Amino acid sequence: VGHDYVQLAFKAFGFAPPIPVPEQRDPDPDFSTVRCPNPEEGESVLELSLRLAEKEGATVVLATDPDADRLAVAEQLEDGSWKVFTGNEMAALFGWWLLTCWKESHPQRNELKNCYMLATTVSSKILQTIAQKEGFQFEETLPGFKWIGNRVDTLMNNGKTVLFAFEESIGFMCGTVVLDKDGVSAAAVAAEMAAFLKSKNITMTQQLNRIYEMYGHHISKTSYFVCNVPATIEKMFERLRNFKNTNSYPTSCGKYAIKHIRDCTTGYDSSQPNRKSVLPLSKSSQMITFTFENGCVATIRSSGTEPKIKYYTEFCASAGQSDTTYLEKELTNLVNALVENFLEPVRNSLIWRSV
Predict the structure, then answer these.
(1) Rounded to 5 degrees, what are φ and ψ at 305?
(2) Which of 20, 97, 260, 291 has a CA between 20 and 30 Å from the CA of residue 46?
């Protein structure tokens, strides 16, 4: 349903019309051109758009999901292959771009302390890292854009400026015209950013690397298992809350020592003096976050809409840590330990994600 609106958004921004994929331009309730209509699933879902881009000589692909509230972005690399940006990577780029635009129109910058960016707690901490260095405010919410939208509304009613908000599942709120994730406005802003970078002979991939070099690499891995038995999901989380003894969370995951644990289902947070979570309780779903001594953060949660157990992991490195090979390997090893020790897919008959 997004085609007409994206065309209008490009026109409002002064851009030439984007080239639509003919087979995917009009609503198709059967989603007959893809195995899965969710652009979160990556390159396999974008096959038609990537082939059309190659034919037309375009280097950037923008893809809204069926109801146009999410946006996937891909860029052709020098070797001809395509990089499909994750939601976390696009958030780093959007955050940088919208902050840059704000600075251009506010040269004094003394109002930056009243500017905010937000993210759901399972999303990358990159905006938090940028905020700490640049001086704007950052806040987290529970997963789900209803939490972000409500918080943004409160901030605006208190005279604050909200520049950007996102969730890792490619949901972006660029500005405050729409207090929700919106793939249409995000597509226009992404095009604006890409056009600016093109004028400087910089690709989005190169700019992303510059952001990480400046603020520190934030490497994330997110996936899920399917579990069709609700009782199994509940049993898995109760095991983590009573790991070796009653009311005792694990102190390590394999060889990785755990520094803090936050359980938003029960309201527990070991990092707080009163052991109570700052985020609201979410008793309707299961969600536990582990902060590790090595700087990694991992959250395990049950989906509120699908029979899935999702995990979100991130290595937040300092600006001086430039060995991405080591960071990737360390995060991969931690994910493997998390799956083996906490999720136990064989024992719990979990179905691995497949596209």
Answers:
(1) -125, -15
(2) 97
Please choose, from the candidates 124, 144, 307, 282, the residue with its C-alpha nearest in 3D space to the C-alpha of residue 215: 124
Does residue 122 contact residue 142 with C-beta atoms inside 8 Å? Answer: no
Q: Is the whole-model pTM more than 0.90?
A: yes
Three-state SS across 188-254? HHHHHHHHHHHHCCCCHHHHHHHHHHHHCCEEEEEEEEECCCHHHHHHHHHHHHECCCCCECCCEEC
Nearest alpha-carbon partner for 136 in 126, 127, 125: 127
Which of 246, 251, 280 minimizes the C-alpha distance to 264?
A: 280
CB 93 within 8 A of CB 193: yes
- 312, pLDDT greater than 90: yes
CA nearest neighbour of 142 among 309, 282, 337? 282
